[in-house]
Amino acid sequence: MKRVLTYWVMAVGLVIGPATAAEPVKIGMVTTLSTKAGYLGEDIRDGFRLAMAQEGGMLGSVPVELLVDDDGRKPEKGKQIADRFIKREGVQIMTGIVFSNVAMAVVPKVVRDGVFYISPNAGPSLLAGKGCHPNYFNVAWQNDNLHEAAGKYVNDNGFNNVYLLAPNYPAGKDALAGFKRYYQGAIVGEVYTKLGQADYAAEIASLRAAKPDAVFFFLPGGMGINFLKQYSQAGLAQQIPVFGPAFSFDERLLKAVGPAALGVRNGSQWSHDLDNPANRAFVAAFRQAYGRTPTLYASQGYDAARLIGSALRAVDGDVSRQDDFRSALEKADFESVRGNFRFGPNHHPVQDIYIREVIEAADGTVTNKIVSKVFSDHSDAYVGECRMP
Amino acid sequence: MLLIVEQFLNGLQLGVMLFLMSAGLTLVFGIMRVINLAHGSFYMVGAYVAATLVHQSGSFLFGLAGALLVTALLGMVVERVVLQRLYARDHLDQVLATFGLILLFNESTRMIWGRQPLFMDVPDWLSHTVELIPGAPYPSYRLAIIVVGMLVSVFLYLLFTRTRLGMQIRAGASNREMIAALGVNINRLYTLVFGLGALLAGLAGVMAGPILAVESGMGESILILTFVVIVIGGIGSIRGALIAALLVGMVDTLGRAFLPALFRLFLPVAQADGVGASFASMSAYILMAAVLVWRPRGLFPVAGS
Questions:
Q1: Residue numbers of chain B with a pLDDT score lower than 70
Q2: CATH number of the domain residue B250 falls in
Q3: From the candidates B132, B212, B220, B225, which should be mutated to test the interface with A, based on the most A CB atoms within 10 A?
Q4: Is a pLDDT exceeding 80 seen at residue A9?
Q5: Which member of B115, B117, B269 has the closest CB to residue A225?
Q6: For B57, what's the count of Cα atoms within 13 Å in the CB-facing half-sphere?
Q7: Of A203, A315, B225, B271, which is the most exposed, with the fewest CB atoms less than 10 Å away?
Q8: Which residue of A has its CA nearest to B276?
């Protein structure tokens, strides 16, 4: 009798199981939450979580579970976390990596293992070109994009004596290469500084002596804060205009730079004042949820979540239908907060890129304002090298 | 020519900052034989406290005073609670424990102030530029740093040569068993010296606040150069720290300013910039290696160490 009952319970369980207890789809987020750059990962995560919260813990009407872990900006740690997510947790979708060096260590292996990776930030050239992969999507930008926008803007606005400054490491050199791809004028100085350098007095003095008519710099994080403060203190802010990528001018860094950043123009694919319904709703919801203005990283995390949501909806949460899931991702059928957005053949964005200017808002805070659209439907320089199998 | 003078001033200013940092570190090592990796944390705490107080009160001097008080007290507490247990241990234990302190302080600042760097501006009365030499405007705040650094070195000189405390510190540096045997309360002396070192680091942090990003982990970027300075100067020697700090400041600044141009004389431009930048970032370490070959115990070795 007892045995029969057990069979009964098992049979009922088998029938009811899949219908009611739909396992949430697990999404693994490897991101940088510690170190000085921790706020980047924090914003990506918060943007992602906001999209989930708006649907009550679901994405595309499919229940999801977000697993977050901190890579500490270390490639090997990122690798371990990804391994654990895939082997132990059975994760089939991953996202979150902030830095290109971590992405290069993690992404190629992950996508080879049949897991989908949606990059909310890092966009190294290799993954856009020769190393592109059907399971890899980048929902932010290719690394060069924002530098290219600054280069084009500087070029189109009649500057032809530019001074360039970047840290002496691969991303620094790529940044200046991206700038030069669309800038044809003369370069009066091209300076590579030590990574993590704090004091730029020597560079600023040389810069003044070189008498450029514009300065372009790529100094992510604290380096950019240091440079801008010192540049302004040297009395140059009013004399030689400064350009850069959005990375040194996100809303959280601007709070630390303060008025020293006023007037700087920077390239970005997104801004909190972009006027479209999705963005207005996102900015308002983010401010309400977290009490701060979102950065571009938050917008990218949010878009990553909504992209995943759009594809989950298309397959009813069944990621094992890999081909359907992939073609749903390719369609990018969601309202991106940056407006115009689709994927190119290398699964990287084709989007508009803008120049923003740092201004003082009516309430006295220092913030960004879009001043012009530099590129429409802009892809990247590596798409031609991508042979999608 | 103008540029050279300006770069000299920049070098002097960096040197002065390094001196404020290394004076405390070299004292602590010289007297207590403790390698304190967490010295940079006092620098960071000084900057954080000053940024907060300046933001709250609007007065730079109030922020300065508060930060000095907090870092000195923090230094003494750390000495009492952690370091006193380490004097008898070997250097490896000290390095491990003080490295732990770095992690503790960095994470604590993140918990208290958040991940976002803080904003701290130059006080209004130092926000303009001065034309010391016509044609090369120089930020008055940086001049103020140079002046403060010089005042501190004069103060330390007087403290060490003219006061009883200074005499005890010097005696402690050359022979601590002897001075303890003479009835000086060596524990109190250690606490005071450590507090003084922390205060100087805090002062450097406050001075750096308006020019640098006030962020968690900011102490580590200056800590390495500080160690270079005390090794070059001779561990335990304040005079050595002063000379070495100015030397390192000059070499680092002038290297960054002029090495790329120098390499451009005989290399193609793109290559020269890369090689120049790499050499410039190594220059302080090359200097250290050269000094150590010539004088293995630094420029001004302390007797008895």
A1: 303-305
A2: 1.10.3470
A3: B212
A4: no
A5: B117
A6: 16
A7: B271
A8: A192
Q: Give the integer Cα–Cα distance in Å for B52 and B36.
A: 26
Q: Superfamily for A145-268+354-378?
A: Response regulator (3.40.50.2300)
Interface of A with B (CB under 8 A): 35-36, 38-39, 42, 168, 190-194, 196-199, 201-203, 205-206, 208-209, 221-223, 225-226, 229-230, 233-235, 252-253, 255-259
User: Does the distance separating the beta carbons of A259 and B141 come in below 8 Å?
Assistant: no
Nearest chain A residue (CA) to B114: A39
Architecture of domain A19-141+274-343: 3-Layer(aba) Sandwich (3.40)
Mutating which of B221, B222, B264 best tests the A interface, going by the most A Cβ atoms within 10 A? B221
Please report which confidence band the pLDDT of residue A141 belongs to, taking 50, 70 and 90 as the band edges. Answer: very high
d(CA A270, CA B202): 39
ipTM of the complex: 0.85
Beta strands in A161-205 (DSSP E): 161-167, 186-193
What's the whole-number average pLDDT of chain A?
91
pLDDT tens, position by position, B248-273: 999 999 998 888 888 888 888 777 87
Please indicate, yes or no, if residue B304 is contained in any of the structural domains.
no
Residue-wise pLDDT for B197-236, tens only, equals 999 999 999 999 999 889 888 998 899 999 999 999 998 8
Structure confidence by residue, pLDDT tens digits, B106-126: 999 989 998 888 888 889 898
b/e string for A257-276 if b means 16 or more Cβ within 10 A? bbbbbbebbbbbbbbbebee
| Residue range of the domain that includes B72 | 2-294
Least CB–CB distance from B119: residue in A198, A233, A255:
A255
Query: Where in chain A are the domains?
Result: 19-141+274-343, 145-268+354-378
Give how far Cα B253 sits from Cα of A193, B129, B231, B280, Å. Answer: 12, 20, 19, 8
Total number of domains constituting chain B: 1
